[in-house]
Amino acid sequence: MSILAYDLGASSGRVLLGELTGSRIVVEEIHRFSNDPVKVGERLHWDLLRLYHEVQQGLLKAKHMGVNPSSLAIDSWAVDFGLIGKTGELLGNPYHYRDWHTHGVMEEIQERQGKDFIFQRTGIQFLTFNTIYQLAAMRNASSPLLEQAKHFLMIPDLLRYFLTGEMYNEFSNATSTQLYNPLQQKWDDELLSGINIPRSWFGEVLEPGNVAGTIRSSVMTDLGIGAIPVIAVAEHDTGSAVAAVPALEHSFAYLSCGTWSLMGTETAQPVINDDTLRFNFTNEGGVGRTYRLLKNIMGLWILQEARREWERQGYSYSFPELVHMAEQAPAFTSLIDPDDELFLHAGDMKTRIRQYCRNTGQPLPETPGEITRCVLESLALKYRYILELTEQVSGQRFNGLHMVGGGIQNRLLCQWTANSVQKPVWAGPAEASAIGNLAVQWMTQGKFADIWEARRVIADSISVEEYEPAESEAWEDAYGQFRRVAGLFVH
Fold it and tell me: Measured on CA atoms in the order 142, 144, 145, 147, is the torsion positive or negative?
């Protein structure tokens, strides 16, 4: 039987049809759509109802192919949410995590509740757009939505609710909010009280692999389809991506590479100590009550934004064209810390990159090739720094690095990452979040005994490309240059 995986990223969404043929996974993309934020006045929102429309279009395309899926599941980015009122309707379009309304709120909450107090209760990395700070910002602004709200649902929770009429919060996304206590395995009453948000909004937390409802009758009538179970997978897309890492050893390092880059390892328990607080690591929930000990890295967002700015100026460059131009540009001329706050929000990245280089006494990159090379080299070097930190805080040593996600289609970045970390890089699968989504659905249906059996089948079903490290001396020198420029002197 076929199943459907909805994988919603920060810039696009896709629907994959999955089948198990013998002991191999076969996937087919049946629907792809853009996911464009919408700015209204000074606020940046997600167009959630358009996303729900695309969810329905995926069901219609499956129907027109003669497919009756035995289940479906949805994964997406984390931290963002919507509020449901007493009539069961969505109260406004959810804010986009890159909106400015959280400016200064994280520091305010840290001062009031204590940074150590928050981290010891959640184990979550401090990021200005975490859910806790979004809710606190709404409270500070006296948002009328808070007075009308009865339920809190994250993006996949909302879409599931629209499909099924059932309200649940899912574990991997719940942990990303910095409001869930993994030690007590529940929403944290003290943190919610500290931002004056009712505990009653937050519902039962489902583990990945639980059935979260069935397509409601009105949807079946509107689309002319039958009943389909909707499964809660690891609904934070990184959780699904890590589920699809084709690792055969329990100790492994991964890099989920796309708009964001997320690097870390999988642990049985959250790692909450002075080092993970000091280095701002996070402990996000995964499949089978595992945890993803990782750090967020700004990722290809910087290059995506630069490309958008060139398009606004009338220059249309494909990503392969930019990569080719980067190869022709001189090496290690200018480097940035991709995680500098300059690069968090939407805007003219060329100007910001030049500003960073000016502030750090470096040559200013001018051409698209120079800008692209600066971003890709800097990412590869930041990956080495974070991999070294991951080894330190986890107490593990990794033989290589698994890269998954759409970013692995940039072969130059994969090779430069291998050069930088001086370890083999194993790249694949590109559609990791969707494949991890499918894998957990098959676990629910009893097709796989556990995530390790699923990973073995994934490893047998996909092509993994290996990149061997090269140019070690040049990259070693560049790493020292990068750490000086970024001010990363201490491990």
Answer: positive
Residue 462, token pair as written in the block: 């996909």
CA distance 184 to 130: 20
Q: Which of 75, 188, 237, 339 is catalytic?
A: 237
Distance CA 303, CA 48 (A): 25
State the Cα–Cα distance between residues 288 and 209, nearest whole angstrom: 9
Radius of gyration, CA atoms only, the chain: 22
Is omega for the bond preceding 429 within 30 degrees of 0, making it cis?
yes
pLDDT band of residue 283 (cuts 50, 70, 90) is very high
Q: Which residues contact 11 (CB under 8 A, 6 or more apart)?
A: 34, 35, 36, 259, 304
Strands of 268-345 (E only): list them.
282-285, 291-297
What is the C-alpha to C-alpha distance for residues 124 and 276, in angstroms, rounded to an integer? Answer: 9
Active site residue 116: no
**Using an 8 Å Cβ cutoff, are 157 and 169 in contact?**
yes
Q: What single letter denotes the amino acid at residue 407?
A: G
**Both structure tokens of 72:** 């479906």
Nearest to 208 by CA among 433, 12, 402: 433
**Which tens digits make up the pLDDT trace of 184-227?**
999 999 999 999 999 999 999 999 999 999 999 999 999 999 99
